[in-house]
């Protein structure tokens, strides 16, 4: 289960949620979005440093605060950043699952 939160007004959580829902691999991996942070296995934090076109993301485990992965993409706005972040995160999550088998 995944909870998404954002520290920037340029990329809202629902933009990334919508991109995840568009991708068949999201459902195929058994991933689910939740609205309650306390019910989440992973938390995705989104941000964009001031005066940049860089959108950052971190994925962490809420119980242990362990950082699972992080990264950044360059995009003009959240509409362009969300698909890039979704693609990158799903690729990383798929790789992590393959390694843990």
Topology:
Layout: E1 2-6, H1 13-22, H2 24-28, E2 42-47, E3 54-60, E4 67-74, H3 78-100
Parallel strand pairs: 1-2
Antiparallel strand pairs: 2-3, 3-4
Helix pairs in contact: 1-3
Provide a concise account of the structure shown.
The chain has helices spanning 13-22, 24-28, 78-100, and strands spanning 2-6, 42-47, 54-60, 67-74. The chain is 38% helix and 26% strand.
**Which structural class do the helices and strands define?**
alpha+beta
The overall pLDDT, averaged over residues, is 94
Uncertain parts: none
**How is the biggest beta sheet arranged?**
4 strands, mixed
Number of helices: 3
Helix content: 25-40%
Describe the structure.
The chain has 101 residues and is an alpha+beta fold. It is built from three helices and four strands. The protein has helices at 13-22, 24-28, 78-100, and strands at residues 2-6, 42-47, 54-60, 67-74. Strand 3 (54-60) and strand 4 form a beta hairpin. Helix 1 (13-22) packs across helix 3. It is globular, with a radius of gyration of 13 Å.
